[in-house]
Amino acid sequence: MGISDSNYATELASLKDAQSLAQIMELSEKALNPDASPVALTEAEEILSGYIDGVEARKLVNKSNGRIESIITVHPDKSRGRIYADSWQLPGSNLETLALKITLELAKSLSEDDALWIGANALDQSYISILKTYDFELLRTYRGLRAPVKNIRFPDLPVDFQIRKVNSEADLNSWWKVHQDSFQFHFGFKPRTFEDWKAIVAKAVGVDPEARWLLLYQNKAVGFIECSDLKIDQNTGYVDGLGVIQEFQGRGLGELLLKWAFAYYSAKGITHLELNVDTGNESGALKLYEKLGMKPKHSWQQYQNLDWETLNIK
Q1: Would you give the distance in Å from CA 55 to the centre of its chain?
Q2: Could you tell me which of 204, 225, 196, 238 has the C-alpha nearest to residue 46?
Q3: What are the domain boundaries of the chain?
Q4: Among 179, 11, 21, 171, which Cα is nearest to 102's?
Q5: β pairing state of 115-121 and 82-89
Q6: What fold characterizes domain 8-143+300-310?
Q7: Torsion of Cα atoms, 30 then 32 then 34 then 39, to 10°
Q8: Positive or negative CA dihedral for 46, 48, 54, 55?
Q9: What is the CATH number of domain 150-270?
Q10: Do domains 8-143+300-310 and 150-270 have the same CATH topology?
């Protein structure tokens, strides 16, 4: 790529580096917050597998000892004209500027016409200050939430409602329709075709096929909740997505679906449940999650510079 530092080699990163990424992520988070939770291997595998349209990943290897000290990833989202980027560094390595330089080069190799959204731990003021130096501005703040799971029963369903697992092509199509309707007014949302959306679902990491449900009203899909095994090695369930169509919002159905997930994990003997939320979500999701006892675990932010392709990192 033509990007180097005298002390580091820039190399391709792949799934075989997932353990190194998990360790770097955990060490960097604990340096910012000693109470941060462990990072599961499956989380790192998801990142290095690519979220949507693949991933470009690089690692910075210390030439003196062969240690991986930073991993940089950029994830293209072609249908939304967007590139998501994240990087993690070992505490004290001071590789933030070099990582940003590599991020920009990787993004340019994918598309100079797409928006670039760069993620950062909300506590990482060192990296955030570098982003601001290059005129990146805050787009959104997200929060990871966590709650204990213990002796929770499946909730009773209102009259004419039922919940069933997603287990057919027709169910997938119903799920897609509900998903698109539920999130149509959310920040950054752009619709996807069924085929594009289905491809993303098919490649998801940590899938639990028993934990994808549709909420039906008189046999019409009006809501969904999707959970995964991303953090199962920590005896923790994870909610990947939750939505209710616009027509049925404000009726407590999101709360019903989340309680269903709590009960599912309670029956499996799982001790905690986690999810991520956009703190600016206009639907009031954050208040719902807090109502059900979910408490902040960590926060991260996304930054954007509309002229990112013109930047020259020194």
Answers
A1: 14
A2: 204
A3: 8-143+300-310, 150-270
A4: 11
A5: parallel
A6: Aminopeptidase (3.40.630)
A7: -30
A8: positive
A9: 3.40.630.30
A10: yes
Structure tokens, 202: 């098919």
pLDDT in tens, the chain (314 residues): 444 578 999 999 999 999 999 999 999 999 999 999 899 999 999 999 999 999 999 999 999 999 999 999 999 999 999 999 999 999 999 999 999 999 999 999 999 999 999 999 999 999 999 999 999 999 999 999 999 999 999 999 999 999 999 999 999 999 999 999 999 999 999 999 999 999 999 999 999 999 999 999 999 999 999 999 999 999 999 999 999 999 999 999 999 999 999 999 999 999 999 999 998 876 678 889 999 999 999 999 999 999 999 999 97
Strand order in the sheet with 295-304: 8-12, 56-62, 68-77, 82-89, 115-121, 295-304, 137-148, 272-278, 236-244, 220-228, 207-217, 161-165
Residue count of the chain, please give it.
314
